[in-house]
Design goal:
Mean pLDDT: 88
Number of domains: 2
CATH architecture of the largest domain: Roll
Structural class: mainly beta
Shape: elongated
Strand order of the largest sheet: 6-3-2-1-7-8
Oligomer: single chain
Number of strands: 11
Number of helices: 0
Strand content: over 45%
CATH topology of the largest domain: SH3 type barrels
Largest sheet: 6 strands, antiparallel
Low-confidence stretches: none
Length: 110
């Protein structure tokens, strides 16, 4: 597993820092650890040509979200509302947690 993937989870709010959707925020829908990529809700739309089937008799061109390279996104802290890196820390009960590097707020338990 890549080092950066372990620091992000499905449902995290992220900011795109590079590419066509630079500056936009969204939520992680799916993670691909081996490819080091994630799919973010409402970002990086691709056009897919679909043949007519019984489920979709019309067929045509469908827009869907495509994967984004992990290095092009940053996690957004819930407290300070800024894009940040993630560090791992310990609580008083000696449990591992993800923490914001800027403000030190606990993001959630690992």
């Amino acid at each position: 597993m890549a080092n950066g993937i372990a620091k992000l989870k499905k449902g995290d709010n992220v900011l795109v820092i590079c590419g066509e959707d630079k500056g936009k925020r969204g939520k992680i829908i799916k993670i691909f650890p081996k490819q080091n990529r994630v799919i973010v809700e409402g970002m990086n739309f691709l056009k897919k040509h679909v043949k007519p089937t019984q489920k979709s008799p019309q067929g045509g061109i469908v827009r869907q979200e495509g994967p984004i390279e992990l290095s092009n996104i940053r996690l957004v802290c819930n407290k300070c509302n800024k894009p940040t890196s993630v560090k791992q820390g310990l609580t008083k009960e000696q449990k591992k947690v993800r923490m914001c590097k800027k403000c030190g707020e606990i993001i959630d338990k690992v």
